[in-house]
Amino acid sequence: MKSKQIQAIRGMNDVLPDEAQLWERFEDTVRDWLRAYGYRNLRTPILEKTDLFVRSIGEVTDIVEKEMYTFVDALNGESLALRPEGTAACVRAVIEHNLLYAGPQRLWYWGPMFRHERPQKGRFRQFHQVGVEALGFPGSDIDAEHLTMCARLWRALGIDGIELDLNTLGDAQSRARYRRRLVHYLESHERRLDADSKRRLRANPLRVLDSKNPEMAELIAGAPKLADDLDEVSLRSFEDLQELLRESGVAFRINSRLVRGLDYYNGAVYEWVCDRLGAQNAVCAGGRYDALVEQIGGKPAPACGYALGIERLLALMKDGAGRPAPGPDAYLVRQGAAAERYGARVAEQLRDGGLAVVLHCGGGNFKSQMKRADASGARYAVIVGDDEAAAGVVSVKPLREAAQQVRASVSEAIDLIKGKA
Ligand code: ATP
Ligand code: MG
User: Which of 284, 304, 317, when mutated, tests ligand 1's pocket best, judged by the most ligand atoms within 8 Å of its CB?
Assistant: First the structure.
């Protein structure tokens, strides 16, 4: 009896080899880009204690209230969570390993993140982020570096039309002042609030401004502005940041409604958005989170950072991509008992010489092997029969141009395929 097929979990995607090409191109670009700015890689586990996220992201946030994959470890009763984002774990690791002892840190990480959201275009339950964090840097020079480097990445990926929305949340006191004014305003319009906003009104009123419900848009547009409550220091450093961005030629617009979904932000916050993406338009978001290190048990240290949504950036790269995937340098065709063994050895020698080689496996006649060679996208077929095996040579046939097949030693074949002959 045929067994029932098992499918992947909703909202969690496979990346098939054809599409993985684009991922690899993205990853290569990103690695070079991070190196160019002196950021170093940090890798943390995908599972963390639930408490880490509750304490850092905040109890009254979408992520902690309804999006986290949390479960009890049956072996010891501990509550664990699949990471919904990377900043908390990064900061945990920095504290745990005392990295700030050696001075300020420029770090990056990437990998899958998990949020139980409604799957739709640009929104998945397992998605991927590249995160960039700078810890121990107090000034707006590092915020400016972060935004300048994003602008460079969009260019390196060949994506245009990504725009920067910028705001500042001020210090804790200015947010408290604003919060009182906002609650007053929202309470006076309580009948017009949707269920989510009503709940947030008491627990985390700034989050009402984050609402994606179009019916809330008008009410939000009329809300008091945080800008009017900002403290001197935050205002001055926000001015600084804007000046630095102008100097680096990074365009931005001030969006006083931008409050970001997580609790830990203060000071400058931002989102990079692209209107070609539809409703899920943010490709990158971040800002300053000076209180977080202390909040999760470290010595107070200023910090800021951002995360890129890889799937959304890839969707924009696909827009203008269309570059064919490169095939291997050579496909090794082998026929006959002696040739089979000899061919496997030759393939290793070609790889020693720096070539990418696909070795034909699974037998078949010469014609069907040549078909496979062609389909592989290889530039050359390296052919060995029992003749070649006996003579210790190979035949090299160009597959992408009309040129003669030639007999050659393995080292001549390497030079020829590398284009040195
Ligand atoms: P959104 O407003 O789209 O829900 P967010 O504010 O929850 O985003 P962050 O936590 O700031 O997102 O994550 C940074 C980036 O990660 C986002 O700008 C987006 O590109 C990407 N991202 C977040 N959630 C998802 C998801 N469920 N699926 C795909 N990408 C996501
Ligand atoms: Mg979200």
Answer: 284
